[in-house]
Amino acid sequence: MISQGGVAIITGGAGFLASEHAKALHAYGATIILADVNEEKCKKAVTSLQAEKVNATAKYCDVTSLQSWQQLYDEIIKEFDKVDILINNAGFTNQSKSANYDAAFENFPLEDWNAIINVNLTGTFLGCQVMGKQMLAQGKGSIINMASLYGVVSPNHRMYPGTGITQPVAYSVSKHGVIGLTKYLATLWAEKGGACKCINTGRYLQ
């Protein structure tokens, strides 16, 4: 249960899922900060949320940069004095692809591997580290990492003919890593007031 007045950060704030997370958290009284590297698009998402009476603010954050995370942390502590919830939602997906997201494994570029790992996994690590430190100091807080069904099983590409959906190697590997990171932190912080969980999203095809 989210206490009234809780402060929640959602990365990947310009994307569809972030707004859905925001609405759900707002229903429990949370103040929402949407953070994204595309600040202009993030502000548009906030405007749409505010039209639905959701208390939300847009902030810039490059999740692959420790300095950017620290700047976001400083701004939020200055404005709100605490961080109660972090949803590590930023990631490369079929809706926000890297340059060669659809490339076959045999020809998958190192640049795309690094880009996807940096956002999906390293970005999650940095968020947990920077915001988790504050939660431990407070003695409470909750981190939710967005993993995937493909962090548990391998994608079966035979399921997706004609759909335009691609699940590249770096996506699956990064989501396996998110689950491993979450398990590590859940155990490490179990008695320290910091909760770390993950959600494994899936896809339903008609």
What does this structure look like?
The protein is α/β, with parallel strands linked by helices. Helix content is 43%, strand content 15%. The chain has 5 helices and 6 strands. The protein has a 6-stranded parallel β-sheet with strand order 3-2-1-4-5-6, sandwiched between helices. Helix 3 runs parallel beside helix 4 and helix 4 packs parallel to helix 5. The chain starts with 6 loop residues before the first strand and ends in a 7-residue tail after the last strand.
Average pLDDT, all residues:
90
Number of strands: 6
- Beta-strand portion reads 5-15%
Strand order of the largest sheet: 3-2-1-4-5-6
Helix and strand pattern = EHEHEHEHEHE
Helix content: 40-55%
Shape verdict = globular
Q: Please give the count of helices.
A: 5
C-alpha end-to-end distance: 34 Å
Task: Give the gist of this structure.
The protein is globular. The chain is α/β, with parallel strands linked by helices.
Index terms:
alpha/beta; 5 helices
Topology:
Layout: E1 7-11, H1 16-26, E2 31-36, H2 39-51, E3 56-60, H3 66-80, E4 85-88, H4 110-138, E5 142-146, H5 169-188, E6 195-199
Parallel strand pairs: 1-2, 1-4, 2-3, 4-5, 5-6
Helix pairs in contact: 3-4, 4-5
